[in-house]
Structure formats: C-alpha cells, structure tokens
UniProtKB/TrEMBL annotation:
UniProt cross-references to SUPFAM superfamilies, sorted A to Z: S-adenosyl-L-methionine-dependent methyltransferases
Protein name per its UniProtKB record: Phosphatidylethanolamine N-methyltransferase
InterPro entries: Methyltransf_11 (IPR013216), SAM-dependent_MTases_sf (IPR029063), Thiol_S-MT (IPR052356)
Gene giving rise to this polypeptide: pmtA
Annotated keywords: Methyltransferase, Transferase
GO function term, MF aspect, one: phosphatidylethanolamine N-methyltransferase activity
One Gene Ontology term from the biological process aspect of the record: methylation
Top-level division of the source organism's lineage: Bacteria
Coiled coil location: none
Domain Methyltransferase type: 44-134
Length: 197
C-alpha cells in the first residue's frame, strides 16, 4: 500500500528538492553514465522524483514511477519523448513479471517503508539476468555509523532510514553483486549494480 505520510511529505518537499539535487547531481551522473554504456533495453526507475536527471538517459525505453503527484508533475515538465511517467507504489508494482532489463533505485531504497518488499517487486518485474542499480548511502562500519545513529530521529521526520544496511535485506541474496562503485572521499555513498540470479 502507498505510504500516505511519505507521499504527502514528498508532495510538500517537492519545491525544495532542487536544493538536495545540487548535492546528488554528480552521483547521478556516475549512475547514468554507467547505464548509458549498456545495450538498449526497457528501464524502470522507481521513485523517479522530479526527473531532473531524465535528460541524461541516452537510450533505453524509460518508465519512471513515483508515489508523489507533486514530484511527478515537475518530472512531467522535464521528460522527453520515450519517457513514460506513472503514479505507482514501488512496493506494489502494476507491471507484469519479467518486463524490464534494468531497474534504477536512486536514493529510494532507504525511503520506502519496506525495502525487502521493494526488492521482491524488483525481482519479479526484472527479466532473467536483469540488473538493478542502487545508488544510496550505506551505513559503514567506521565512525560514520555513529553519525547515522545520531541522525536517526531527525531522519525519520525526513522520511528516510539513516541507518541502512543492505545485507540485512533477505531479498538481496536473490541477486549477484556485479559492481561496487564508491563515491566521494569517505565512500558513504555507493553505486551498487546487481544482477538477478
Ligand atoms: C529522495 S527522493 C529520490 C528521487 C530521485 N530518485 C533522485 O535520486 O533524486 C525519493 C523519491 O521516492 C519516492 N517514493 C517514496 N516511496 C515510494 C514508493 N513506495 N514507491 C515509489 N516511489 C516512492 C518519493 O516520492 C521521492 O520522489
């Protein structure tokens, strides 16, 4: 079910999101450069947000979904031909099985209510050997974990999980890790590329 609170949070937050985007832009460039090297395919982006990066995709048939109508409205003004945008919950995808070659999760896996359920849906709609691209922060096993823990309550009000470990998700074992790209000086952000087993 769509999380009404996260949905309405992003509806209110949509107008300030461009400020967050300034910070995320270089990471998304790395993500999309990686995707642009792959053979043409059917790509699903879950939690597409305001679509500021949509123009960077050079090929592929793009479907972007999001639960926030305000984010989608902004993305709609930016999308080019060949991009389809739909209001949909990533935890309850209205797509048939094995429909997509690639799924992009850019700063969304630690935002959704149930990341395991999200991965279950991603697994279902991916074709055999299809790939997921997960761009996110991951709580490291160093001093930064204390920052994540301290930021926990504040993060809750901002609708994301500051303490986030991918290995704790049962569904991740259904995928093989292909690539681990560390971003920034302390490698707090990463682009992880997985393939459906
Ligand atoms: C932090 S923003 C990331 C936006 C974009 N992917 C980016 O990298 O800039 C998270 C986005 O995920 C959306 N979202 C949250 N829960 C969702 C869900 N269950 N299904 C689809 N989208 C969701 C929010 O509305 C928001 O637009």
């Amino acid at each position: 079910m769509v999380s009404i609170s996260t949905d309405s949070f992003y509806n209110k937050f949509a107008f300030v999101y461009p400020l967050v985007d300034v910070f995320l832009k270089p990471q998304k460039r790395v993500l999309i450069d990686e995707i642009n090297t792959l053979p043409r395919g059917n790509l699903l982006e879950i939690g597409v947000g305001n679509g500021a990066h949509l123009h960077l995709y050079e090929k592929h048939t793009i479907t972007g979904i999001d639960t926030s109508s305000a984010m989608l409205r902004i993305a709609g003004k930016r999308k080019h031909k060949g991009v389809q945008l739909l209001q949909m919950d990533g935890e309850a995808l209205r797509f048939q099985n094995e429909q997509f070659d690639y799924v992009v999760l850019s700063h969304v896996i630690a935002v959704v209510d149930n990341p395991d359920r999200l991965l279950e849906e991603v697994f279902r709609v991916l074709k055999p050997e299809g790939r997921i691209f997960i761009l996110n922060h991951f709580t490291p096993d160093n001093w930064l974990k204390y920052v994540d823990h301290a930021f926990g309550i504040m993060a809750k009000t901002l609708h994301f999980k500051s303490v986030f470990h991918l290995h704790e998700l049962a569904m991740i074992s259904r995928f093989t890790l292909l690539k681990d790209v560390r971003l920034g000086a302390v490698s707090y952000f990463k682009l992880l590329v997985y393939q459906k087993k």
